[in-house]
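JOB MANIFEST
job_type = single_chain_structure
chain_count = 1
residues = 59
[input]
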Amino acid sequence: MSKYELIHDFYEKSKILEFSDTAELMGQAKDDEEKDFIALITDFVLQQKQKRVIAEKRF
């Protein structure tokens, strides 16, 4: 699997995350760096969902 395919696969899978999953995922993190990574990913997913809601004028 190429690096692009790996990242693309991760991106697609990350779409199932909900902001409410953050606390559980943080609790499972092995160290602070992993916690930071989880925070970045869940924030990104939330931002993308917010953009869609705003674009669809559902706010």
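[summary]
The two ends are 40 Å apart (CA to CA).
The helical segments are 3-14, 22-28, 32-55.
exit_status = 0
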